[in-house]
Automatic annotation (TrEMBL):
Its EC number is 2.8.1.7. It is an enzyme of class 2 (transferase). GO terms for biological process: [2Fe-2S] cluster assembly; amino acid metabolic process. Pyridoxal 5'-phosphate binds at G73, T74, N154, Q182, S202, S203, H204, T240. InterPro entries: Aminotrans_V_dom, Aminotrans_V_PyrdxlP_BS, Cys_deSase_IscS, Cys_deSase_NifS_bac/arc, Cysteine_dSase, PyrdxlP-dep_Trfase, PyrdxlP-dep_Trfase_major, PyrdxlP-dep_Trfase_small. It comes from Romboutsia lituseburensis DSM 797. Homodimer. Forms a heterotetramer with IscU, interacts with other sulfur acceptors. [2Fe-2S] cluster binds at C328. Pathway: Cofactor biosynthesis; iron-sulfur cluster biosynthesis. Signal peptide: none annotated. This is Cysteine desulfurase IscS. GO terms for molecular function: 2 iron, 2 sulfur cluster binding; cysteine desulfurase activity; metal ion binding; pyridoxal phosphate binding.
Amino acid sequence: MEKRRLYMDYSATTPVKKEVLDAMMPYLTDYFGNASSFHTFGREAKNALDKAREQVANLVNAKPSEIYFTAGGTESDNWALEGVAFAHREKGNHIITSKIEHHGILHTCEYLEKHHGFEVTYLDVDSEGKVSLEQLEAAIKDNTILISIMFANNEIGTVQPIAEIAKIAKKHKVLFHTDAVQAAGNIPIDVKELDVDLMSMSSHKIYGPKGIGALYIKTGTKLHTFVHGGAQERRRRAGTENIPSIVGYGKAAEIAKSNMENHVKNLTELRAKLINQILEKIPYTRVNGSLDDRLPGNVNFSFEFIEGEGILLLLDMLGIAASSGSACTSGSLDPSHVLMAIGLPHEIAHGSLRLTIGDFTTEDDIDYIIEHLPAVIERLRSMSPLYDQAMKNK
Ligand SMILES: Cc1ncc(COP(=O)(O)O)c(C=O)c1O
Ligand code: FES
């Protein structure tokens, strides 16, 4: 029997859709011009760039002139924080963020604290992973220049009350940035309605190529340049544009927009089946993150008495690709900072499994994992001294 290849790690990255690849290909060969050139080849590239900017803008209801292409979510996060920090330091040096942000935010905050004299407040989150609006408002001071709270968490899928956070930021005249890398293209977003000032996005989480993303910068928002050089991206982000990837991102954004309703509905149904069946079949299991405000494709379990690494290994032998915590932390033995922040004890945080599903996930895939996961957990528990102890003490 051929070994199954079942991908359940869509939050780490997604495959490029065929239509996206088809849109990109001509821009690698026939239409390879530099968008800054005045000749026909340059104009072809420039037209493609303009079109992609419209497609990405349209995904989140921004104006095309408010979309700046970057090399991905991490660069957008770095730019937003450093750009605002350096442009507004006369007003103040205080930034507010949360403890469960991606390292693209957390490590940039640490850098600003350590090397540039900024002060950062890291807000706690509750057991579902939500920030408290009261705590947020109480943390704002006269010298606060920026609030950066992620739209949706990459590990536990919790979606934050973004509109309410934006309202508080506005009330206190503080800029608001949100890392929407997991959200933009996976759930509906309207930057005008939400009233955010800056928003990070990435292509490879929505079936576009890797290494390309965007920063939404609301018209009139002051921030420093991050990548210095040529006059590209209206002099705000230098470097010859990666036209094939930008075209791919544009196409992926267009598809995500037109497919949004279906995408959310299908994934939410598959997710519900997966969560319900696993909770029913496997005892001593909990779901991490909010059940109501959650990315449609995210499932995150903690199985008591065992280690996530063991689960991943046995699942991989069954052909199932999953993750424990997040792509970047699963290589380390430290428990995820997100699971610790929602208050999971060390040993339970270690036994966590993230299954993230996407547009190519079928009901048959869900059935396959529901069929095999219980035996995997049972096998690991049968080897666990902790489980043995717990059963004896019952
Ligand atoms: C919430 C969040 N922010 C930022 C990033 C980084 O994006 P990129 O991989 O495009 O640099 C990721 C990707 O894992 C993410 O999940
Ligand atoms: S670097 Fe921490 S989750 Fe990716």
